[in-house]
Write a structure and sequence with these properties.
This protein is α/β, with parallel strands linked by helices. The chain has 16 helices and 11 strands. Strands 2-1-7-8-9 form a 5-stranded parallel β-sheet. Strands 4-3-5-6 form a 4-stranded parallel β-sheet, sandwiched between helices. Strands 10-11 form a two-stranded antiparallel sheet. The relative contact order is 0.17.
């Protein structure tokens, strides 16, 4: 594989096409690398790199976060979640806690964690007090959760509130919509490491679009960009792998087996986007006893306005669907900043708005 400088030189040597080439980078980790490396400023102006739906915190259903908030407030339990989730706002009245962090300030026992191993250790430490793991994420996060559930020594006081999602159905949703707004795609390397590069073959075979799996280094990303650009020039639709040291065509069969054992797949809601068929994980029947939603029901309450939606004025959904750049959002940098986020895309370090703001990007993509 050529090094990053050689790939960049090869890209710059390509003839300028009649129209810009729009490349969707699905993964939030890719967006972070692209922005931190400054790839957009290094590439020719006719290449447009568009951030997409690959931020699990951003697409986590608003109602799931609300459920976690109320569960922690109404029941004597400890709720744990990945750190980014604590600051994601939901739609409630000004008198109610609007995030897990606000619920913690109001007295709920809510703690950030970094891995399922921390959850297991905490549950053992606090037993018999119930510990609820609010688990949101894509396949790379759900695989360790599945491994946790397979542990025969898992503490009896550990329960799961699941909000897991599969990545490829969101891309299929965008492509099936018709005018998707992009011409080629960079597929997420870490997801492909689990599920296999071949999972993304449908992009080329069913939608006639070049796609390349990439890692997170400048070398891998530029290789993926160069590959899809040359495919686009030749009007070829194919799947390529710019992350071969980590990603195999068939992925990780052991991880896939654990996912299939721990979870069933169902239609699922993506915040601001809607229900995407067969895009969500739910606990398999064998783990029904650990379902926190069933174990800790919520008290009846008044209906919320805008339940499940993005906050008023927030364009996170348009950013996730690659229809707007982050700084084209009406609230970007004014009402919505990382210190005072309105929408979920300004919270997570995989959210495009947060990434752009942290990098000092203020001008819309031309």
């Amino acid at each position: 594989m050529a090094n990053a400088a050689e790939r960049l030189e090869a890209i710059r040597a390509l003839p300028t096409p009649a129209a810009p080439v729009r490349i969707l980078n699905v993964c939030g980790g890719h967006e972070r690398s692209i922005t931190e490396i400054g790839l957009r400023s290094l590439l020719p102006g006719w290449i447009k790199l568009l951030p997409g739906p690959g931020c699990p915190v951003c697409v986590c259903p608003e109602e799931a976060i609300y459920h976690a908030i109320r569960m922690a407030l109404e029941h004597p339990l400890t709720l744990v979640a990945f750190g980014d989730m604590l600051r994601v706002p939901v739609n409630v009245s000004k008198t109610e806690p609007a995030s897990l962090a606000a619920a913690r300030a109001a007295g709920a026992d809510i703690r950030p964690i970094a891995s399922p191993l921390e959850v297991i250790a905490l549950a053992r430490q606090l037993a018999p007090r119930p510990v609820v793991f609010f688990a949101a994420g894509f396949e790379t996060t759900m695989a360790p959760v599945a491994a946790m559930l397979a542990d025969a020594t898992l503490p009896a006081n550990l329960f799961v509130l699941l909000a897991g999602r599969l990545t490829w159905p969101a891309v299929k949703y965008l492509l099936d919509a018709g005018d998707c707004g992009f011409d080629a795609m960079i597929a997420p390397g870490h997801v492909a490491a689990v599920m296999g590069a071949n999972e993304w073959r449908f992009v080329a075979e069913k939608h006639a679009m070049p796609v390349s799996v990439a890692g997170f280094s400048a070398e891998s990303l530029l290789t993926a960009v160069y590959t899809v650009l040359t495919r686009t020039r030749r009007q070829e639709a194919a799947l390529d792998n710019a992350y071969p040291k980590i990603v195999k065509p068939e992925g990780n069969p052991q991880a896939q087996k654990m996912l299939m054992s721990a979870f069933d797949i169902e239609d699922a809601n993506w915040r601001g986007i809607g229900v995407i068929p067969r895009s969500g994980y739910r606990l398999a029947q064998r783990h029904a006893g650990r379902d926190a939603a069933a174990r800790f029901p919520l008290s009846a309450g008044s209906e919320r306005r805008r339940a499940g939606e993005m906050p008023p004025g927030c364009d996170c959904a348009e950013v996730l669907l690659a229809r707007k750049a982050p700084d084209q959002c009406r609230l970007y940098g004014t009402a919505c900043t990382p210190e005072h986020p309105v929408g979920p895309c300004m919270v997570s370090d995989e959210g495009a708005c947060h990434i752009w703001w942290a990098a000092g990007l203020r001008k819309p993509l031309s």
